[in-house]
Design brief:
This is Cytochrome P450. The protein is an alpha+beta fold. Helices cover about 45% and strands about 5% of the residues. The chain has 17 helices and 8 strands. A hairpin with a 2-residue loop joins strand 4 and strand 5. The model has no long low-confidence stretch (mean pLDDT about 90). Bound molecules: protoporphyrin IX containing FE. Protoporphyrin IX containing FE binds next to helix 4, helix 12 and helix 16.
Length: about 475
């Protein structure tokens, strides 16, 4: 105790009473403010969001030293005042470090670990082929098609659920729910609610009541997220293999607690998987429009390895290093979860002579790490070549930290990686992504706007998605899809 009393907290901006450091923050892009504080105070910054102590880690080295190497102490989640009111207490991503979280994690491990994930590849390719048909038919609905692609993969793995070709009720429900949840249940809103609990009691006719209304909407949505798939899925013995039916088959006597864990972890999976994957694909399309020379180089690589008589498949992956570099650069350029998900300390700790208090929120500023000038020169530029050596080989850097750290690292990262690769590679092989034209026939410059919340992605932007080949009508596309590998 004496040791702790003599230690100082990491440096950081001086907090004001009650509101802490909120005034100095860019609340739409807190990762940018945290990175600026990093430039002033160093890789470890102490700040306060209202009453919540927040320790921001701005470097990969410190994140690895604490969240990975001392993961026994850095794997909790901070108390969040918004979790219960929004009904998200069930979410594996929000559970405190303990037995219930371990039970969820074990269920995920059976289905999403690296070797188990390989068996989904044919299904992922099939969904990517459906994505091509959807884009061919109604390219203007590209954002909805990406949502459907991401949702249909996770629904197949978790519930053995086949999505409808159009307006699938489960997909629509997930899309709306996750949009609201990622915007409402943020660490910022949680800290604000903790400091001002009256926000949950403002009557609906008073200004400022929209916060409470959104929280209540989230609550209903969260309930639906757990129950909705059960309205559509048949878990009888005859249903196909899925995370749920496999878990029930493995341990049919697990009791109510076990069944609850299965329901909750599967609802977490489809929530965590859909928005992150489709948002990353939106970022990819944006990057391709803004960087036509990158798009062209990736397409030429695919043509030279695969030809134009069939579609790429996972056997081609190791022969397409530039496409791989594009995928890594997409993860780096605009990480979809720029601040990851906050961890918390179980006990007080000392790092580099600084005190890390027990229960502090530990935020990994993934955005600052992917924009580290020393590792990634000109970080705001989209340059896939940074992942290639001078002789065209891939470097060891897979930007793995975009999926988090230590024991709480993303459970779906192997499935996500394959879903991203399949969609990007197949889209590149068939389509050109271009800006729209104005009345004079000139390209309209894109000025991307980004959403803010736990995840961040471009707001839907106008673009043209057209087949690379002038003879690629629906029939020829169907023929290409059916061509043997
Ligand atoms: C591009 C796609 C994805 C990205 C960028 C991503 C990123 C992340 C990040 C940064 C975290 C926080 C890790 C930490 O606390 O250090 C996380 C957690 C999580 N992710 Fe993902 N994710 C993606 C796709 C998926 C998929 C496909 C699933 C499917 C199961 C998934 C399930 C989860 C779960 C359950 C957690 C919480 C883990 C825990 O708290 O123990 N994610 N993800």
């Amino acid at each position: 105790r004496r040791l702790v009393a003599n230690l100082s907290l990491p440096p950081g901006p001086t907090p004001l009473p009650v509101i802490g450091n909120v005034l100095g923050m860019n609340t739409r892009e807190p990762w940018v403010t945290y990175a600026q504080w990093g430039n002033i105070y160093g890789d470890l910054v102490y700040s306060r969001l209202f009453q919540q102590e927040v320790i921001v880690i701005n470097s990969e080295k410190v994140a690895t030293a604490l969240m990975q190497q001392r993961s026994y102490n850095y794997s909790d989640r901070p108390y969040s005042a918004i979790t219960e009111p929004t009904g998200l207490g069930f979410s594996s991503a929000r559970l405190p470090y303990g037995d219930r979280w371990r039970q969820h994690r074990k269920l995920f491990h059976q289905v999403f670990r690296a070797d188990a994930s390989i068996k989904y590849r044919p299904m992922q390719l099939h969904r990517a082929q459906q994505l091509l048909s959807d884009l061919h038919e109604t390219p203007e609905n590209y954002a909805a098609h990406l949502q459907k692609y991401s949702a249909s993969i996770i629904l197949s793995i978790v519930y053995a659920y086949e999505t409808e070709p159009k307006n699938d009720p489960v997909v629509v429900e997930i899309e709306e729910s996750m949009d609201l949840i990622f915007k409402t249940a943020t660490p910022f809103n949680s800290a604000m609610l903790s400091a001002f609990p009256f926000l949950m009691h403002i009557p609906s006719w008073l200004p400022g009541s929209s916060f409470r209304q959104n929280v209540m909407l989230c609550r209903n949505r969260a309930k639906d997220m757990i129950e909705a798939p059960y309205k559509f899925v048949n878990f009888s013995d005859t249903s196909g293999p899925s995370m749920i039916s496999d878990a029930l088959r493995r341990d049919n006597h697990g009791g109510e607690e076990y069944k609850k864990a299965i329901k909750e972890s599967s609802a977490t999976a489809f929530g965590a998987a859909t928005e992150t994957t489709s948002s990353t694909l939106l970022i990819f399309i944006l990057a391709m429009i803004l960087h036509p020379h990158v798009q062209e180089r990736a397409q030429l690589e695919i043509d030279s390895v695969v030809g134009t008589e069939r579609l790429p498949n996972f056997d081609d992956r190791s022969s397409l290093p530039f496409v791989e570099a594009v995928l890594r650069e997409v993860l780096r350029w605009h990480p979809v979860a720029p601040l990851g998900v906050p961890h918390a300390t179980t006990n007080s700790d000392v790092y580099n002579g600084y005190l890390i208090p027990k229960g502090a929120s530990i935020v990994s500023n993934i955005w600052a790490m992917t924009h580290n000038e020393a590792k990634y020169p000109n970080p705001s530029e989209f340059i896939p070549e940074r992942f290639l050596t001078t002789n065209g080989q891939l470097t060891d850097d897979t930007v793995a930290f975009a999926f988090g750290f230590g024991r709480r690292v993303c459970v779906g990262r192997h499935v996500a990686d394959a879903s991203l690769w399949a969609a990007m590679t197949l889209m590149l092989s068939v389509f050109k992504f271009m800006p729209t034209k104005n009345m004079q026939g000139e390209d309209v410059a894109l000025e991307p706007q980004w959403t803010s919340g736990i995840t961040s992605h471009p707001v839907a932007f106008p673009c043209r998605i057209i087949p690379r080949s002038s003879v690629m009508d629906a029939q020829n596309l169907a023929r290409l899809i059916d061509s043997p590998a």
